[in-house]
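Quick one: co-fold with histidyl-adenosine monophosphate.
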Amino acid sequence: MTDENTQAQQTEADKRQNPLGMHDILPDMHEYFTYIKKVVRHRARQAGYKRITTPILEFTDVFQRGIGDATDIVGKEMYTFTDRNERSLTMKPESTAGVVRAYIQHGMKEWPQPVQLYYIEPHFRYDKPQKGRYRQFWQIGLEIIGESDPALDAQVIDLANRINQDLGIAHLFTIQINNIGCPKCRGKYKQDLVNFYIGKERSLCEDCQNRLHKNPLRLLDCKQEDCQILAQLAPKFDQYRCPECKEFHTKLKDYLTELKIEFVENPKLVRGLDYYTGTVFEVWDKTQGAQNAIGGGGRYDGLAELMGGLPTPGVGYAAGIERIIANMKKENVRVPSKDDIHIFVAQLGDDAKKKCLTLLNDLRERGVKAVGALGKGSMKAQLRLADKFKVPYTLILGITEVREGVIIIRNMAKGQQRTVPHDTVIEEVIKLIGDDKLDKYSPGEVLY
Ligand code: HAM
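Sure, here it is.
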């Protein structure tokens, strides 16, 4: 692996950094993650999707067969290694292939069809790190497996759009759609495309020269200027689409119109994974186009067979969570913080410390988010800490308070204090915070 972070070149300072293209998710970013997960779970559940998590590692074959040997992902970007048993394993660069593997493995064709699954997962691609492009990134994803109908494609696009609306960023994007045909109509087109490019290879970028015979459709959506000029002149797929694919695409557009979803027809949209058949779509940034696509998807009716299963159609979508967050921040979309602390408990003396341990537990049981300074700091130092936590109230328990069975409630903003009997303090605190602000765990509700 040649990389600026090879073991040999790694300096002492590098060892204290995360690997290039990977990042820590710090608490403020987790607030966005939590919110996005909540929106996705809510919308997916409403539409009957169930959650799936496939392993981080799959046998390499799953991606080689599924995504395709000639793609950038399989050719250049996978984290692949041999395990102690000489089996080749790969850290998942995407989830669709693994989800289809799971569909086959667990006999999901016996479940009510189509099977609708969603995921919120980390993925790994040895990509060139830059803004919005990482080597570990998170995706939210939706898959509908087991039936082929343009109404399902429309529903996936609708749900993707609805999620973006809920997150306050849909207006920044356009939905680009295309239909890249089935193996029947695409075969002849691919041949004519190769014939068109033969003799013009020198005008193509290096990647496109390599792709020409392996994956000629990718030449259409290359971002290099010279390749784009040639792509404009290349034969158009429209004239090759078979009647079935034409009808499927027309119906999809009808359904999207019915759902009042704006879309742009983009005959050059191809996507970078080989498993697609028919519908493909991408959610493009209105100003930067494909450069900053937030998500993409399409139909993959041949994928299950490629993986050794029975013919099983499918359609799906995935979007990058880091890119979603960057756009939410750009739009000043704020998410509610659930991490703010209600109460700080300050104490002085051994007896007070003991009482504080129970007090903290009792407060938390009632839904009051409470932290305490149980170290050895002075009262002044503890109050400074309380300020840093930005709590509205601090409870103060010293030697005198323990002896008298009372506790001090300090209003941090006003600097005012009052003393209440110890056994009434929890009710007093709840009155001050407000019942609706408590962080209650209701039995029966599963928390993630
Ligand atoms: P994809 O277009 O490769 O599709 O990835 C979907 C989204 O994941 C991208 O639009 C982008 O937001 C995010 N993404 C991809 N690579 C990176 C990266 N290196 N850094 C940050 N974000 C990234 C798929 O993965 C397909 N499995 C989608 C699908 C689902 N098709 C059918 N079902």
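If it helps, The pocket of histidyl-adenosine monophosphate is lined by residues 94-96, 125, 127, 132-134, 137, 139, 141, 143, 272, 293-298, 316-320, 322-323 (CB under 6 Å).
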